[in-house]
Automatic annotation (TrEMBL), chain A:
Lineage: Eukaryota, Metazoa, Spiralia, Lophotrochozoa, Mollusca
Family: Belongs to the Wnt family.
SMART domains, A to Z: WNT1
Organism: Sinanodonta woodiana
Key words of the record: Developmental protein, Disulfide bond, Extracellular matrix, Lipoprotein, Secreted, Wnt signaling pathway
The keyword Nucleotide-binding appears for this protein: no
Main location per the UniProt record: secreted
BP-aspect Gene Ontology terms: Wnt signaling pathway
Gene3D superfamilies xrefs: 3.30.2460.20
Protein's name according to its UniProt entry: Protein Wnt
Annotated localization: Secreted, Extracellular space, Extracellular matrix
UniProtKB/TrEMBL annotation, chain B:
Membrane topology: Multi-pass membrane protein
Compositional bias segments (type: Polar residues): 479-488
Keywords, in A-Z order: Developmental protein, Golgi apparatus, Membrane, Transmembrane, Transmembrane helix, Wnt signaling pathway
Top-rank taxon: Eukaryota
Primary location recorded for the protein, binned into one broad class: Golgi
Region (Disordered): 463-497
Keyword Transferase: no
Descriptive protein name: Protein wntless
Species this chain originates from: Sinanodonta woodiana
Residue ranges crossing the lipid bilayer per the database entry: 194-214, 226-245, 265-284, 296-313, 338-365, 385-413, 433-455
Cell compartments where the protein resides: Golgi apparatus membrane
Domain Wntless-like transmembrane: 188-459
GO cellular component: Golgi membrane
Amino acid sequence: MEHVFYDDNYVNENLWKEGKQRMFNCTDFHGNLFTCRCRESAFIYALTSAAVAHSVARACAEGSIYTCTCDYNLKQPDGKDWEWGGCSDNAKFGHKFSRKFVDVIEKGRDFRYMMNLHNNEAGRRHVTTEMKQECKCHGMSGSCTIKTCWMRLPLFRTVGDLLKDRFDGASRVLPGRRRRRKFTLLPANTNHKPPGKKDLVYFEDSPNFCEKDTSIGFTGTKGRECNATSLGIDGCDLMCCGRGYKSESYTVRERCSCTFHWCCQVKCKVCTRTKIRHTCL
Amino acid sequence: MAGVVLETLSWKKLIALGILLLLLLLSFFLIGGLVAPNPSNVMVVLGTKCLRKGSHMQEEWFIPFGGNEKCDSINSVDEDRVYDEGISANQIVFSFWLPYMRDGKQLDFSRWQQMLLTVMQLDIQYDPKFPMVKGNQYNCSLLAFFELGSLHYDYYLINVRVPVEPYKGINMEIGSLMDIWVIGIHQNGGFTKVWVSIKTAMFPIVLAVLIWFWRRIMMLTRPPNLLERTLFSLGIAMSLLNLPLEWLTLAVDMPFMLMINDIRQGIFYAMLLCFWIIFAGEHIMDQVERNRLKHYWKHLAAVIFGCSCLFIFELSERGVRLTNPFFSIWITDVGTKLALSFIILAGIAACSYFLFLCYMIFQVFRNISAKRTTLPSMSSARRKFYLGVIYRFKFLMISTLFCAALTVCFFIISQLNEGQWKFMDQDLNLEYTSAFFTGVFGMWNVYVIGLLCMYAPSHKNKPMETDETSNEEEVQLTHLPSETSSVQAFAAKAAAD
């Protein structure tokens, strides 16, 4: 399962991007947030399943993993092979794989599992709805009597951004009536409409993330870097929960005034700069 | 034209033949919809970014996967290694191997898959210098890559380099190229098998009917008239289209197959258009003796002009690709203008053709309404005969319109169906596009067979030719079929309205 390991980096990288500006910092959690039923865990579930679907689809296209199946287009009892009907789309395979691989952990009949499955599906749905259809005509003399279409995979960053928006608008739900082993998800606020397929849902309010919380393995915001000038959540006032912050200056050597051609021929100077770092007390 | 089979055929036989042909038509649609897979399939391959180590002059191929043959690759152009080792754009080779790997096995192309055409899609990262509305990536349009008219080999390896030439200014301002995707479209082997089977089955049938038709004509004492010759040519064009040349591609490399198929199809449709014009013209009931090709020169010139425009376009697009598969007429400005002008000229020719055809049908209709007034003055037996003939003509003409309507309907359905991308597999898999192709192909076969059978000269003597020999009567008789067909055309028009 090398590609899933690769996924892990994928997710971490994104979580880090999102979490850097928030109270919760994903590198602080070491996986324990999965056990919480809060808004943050909903985001992690959705992002993970989306990342699996996306990266497996991408890896299949690159041919870098061996587990991709052909998943023949045509349901034929015999003669079902690549020569007959070709292989199905990578994106379809990634979606199916994510469904099998990520959802398999959620086996219980508990309300929590229902919620996790919902969030997983929401994550995958963002991948599929962000795909764009492209077509090519290749009929007689290149006319459109035959048109073949395929789906263009979105950048994962786009999916991550959308999920972040869903994270901000996630709704708290309560278990509703039980229908055939499944709970319906009812919004906690009765004025809200029930959550849609792409909405993230959570059950418990988030811990305030100010203090250390061993139950979820959170180390608190002590020592976190913050932005002194920002009034938002990444600003020192909110991030440090009013405990104050200390400022220190440090010097750093980094690449600067870089110029590059189309990809990677980067010509940089190395500059020495003095920066100020604020950390929460 | 005196005494075609249609006029002397009994009702029972006519209905039986009609039902037989309809069943044949239905089976074509069903074969396409249920047995054949989608006509073509797509393969999206992401390029592996290989690193070239040697000197730039060295000819070298990079293989994206495999054991020790696999090239040294990077995952992303902004990973640390690129900065640490100072890898330049000139060292990166995008490597593609078609077809890709599935189920842990290397797939290989089958010759049944006939053709491969590819499109390139570039992922260019956002650069603050070139702002855009939304998103993280530019929405780059697709680039036509190459087109192969035959899939003779099992594998195809593609290496793409985007070298930077600072002094010539090549590839300098294209943004940060993150990935190249190659989308390969190939025909499905299953579809080719079904398609070739249909052709192999229909070729001898149409040929047999054609031979029977020509023998009937040869048995006559008079030379064949224009309509019969046109019909015979239509049969030949149909047989040409039916000729299952695809069998040869399994053994021989035939990159010109795509072009040959286009040309065969073009010849058939041109012949069909000519047939309609001549058919309508031969049934105008005025006193002009046509029966010669030169009376139709205006109409035929429109067809020939339009077709030769399309033929030149075909030669300059698919013809040039025989020597250079990467060529496309659309990439240069001059080429685009040239291609567009040919297509527009062909369009003008098509429009003038349809104006001619409509005018001719209008003429037939006008003459018929004039002749119709004389119909009640005829004897009752004769009128009965006339009405019967009218009805049979109606049958044939309705089937023509039915064919045309069916083509249009199925085309629209298959286009709509193609437009919606089904994400999940459905239980009932009806392939509309395949059904459209086999159905329309079978339909024109059935149509030509029907025409050849109905319009072959009959052996039976017509009852009214026994006693009356006056000159006036003969003139009326020679125009008999046209009268009926125009009545029919009118009926069809009314129905369409």
